[in-house]
Amino acid sequence: MLINTTRSAGFTLIELLITLVILGVLMAVAFPQFNTWIQNEQTRTAADTLQNALRSAKSESARLNRQVAFSLTATNPSRTSIPAPAAAGRFWFIQVIPSPTVAGDPATYIQGGQLGSSKLTIAGPASICFNSLGRMSNTLSPSAGGTCLAPAAATYSISTAVGDHPLNVTVSIAGQVRVCDPSRTLSQTTPDGC
């Protein structure tokens, strides 16, 4: 008598349950690290966006040969609605500052956008003004929410509650914009430090 000892292809219920338990344990261990990584990437993206927006404001001031303001705000800006600047805003906009010598010269919206999700904490000046040479200037502008930051280096700090890697975006009085790591000191060996 011949007995068929071949096993049919597939998984048994026990094998499937063991695989699911192992997968669940691995996900439970990896999820906190993954969440921290996501928050750190959001911080990096917001810092890069802020750096690019500040550089754009600087180049627009030189291109237009006009005073230009970069501002943070709490609401989404548009050409028809320029909101008041807010120091902890997640949105940004760039506008040409009205000339005090030309009557009826309006504040002209150039561009704007969003820095990131509501999980981000952004601290820094509400507005920074650039003169026609691309340097920081102290310009009174009622449409930009009052006086822009006086000519001195400015720093925006960006962080999240879960992330463990905050970043700063600094603007020098000469208009140089860079992203740096506040946990490191700037030196020849650590060019990404603050």
The helix/strand series, from N terminus to C terminus, equals HEEEEEEEEEEE
The total count of helices amounts to 1
- Gyration radius, rounded: 26 Å
The low-pLDDT segments are: 141-146
CATH topology: minor pseudopilin epsh fold
pLDDT average, as an integer? 82
Largest sheet descriptor: 5 strands, antiparallel
Structural class, by secondary structure, is alpha+beta
Helix content: 25-40%
Number of domains: 1
Portion in strands: 25-35%
Summarize, please:
By secondary structure, the chain is an alpha+beta fold. It has one helix spanning 13-64; strands at 68-73, 91-96, 108-114, 120-123, 127-130, 136-137, 140-141, 146-147, 154-160, 167-171, 177-180. It has one domain (31-180): minor pseudopilin epsh domain (minor pseudopilin epsh fold, 3-Layer(bab) Sandwich), CATH 3.55.40.10.
Explain what this protein looks like in three dimensions.
This protein is an alpha+beta fold. It has a single domain (31-180), classed as minor pseudopilin epsh domain (minor pseudopilin epsh fold). Helix content is 27%, strand content 25%. A hairpin with a 6-residue loop joins strand 9 and strand 10. The longest helix is centred in the N-terminal third of the chain and has 52 residues, at 13-64.
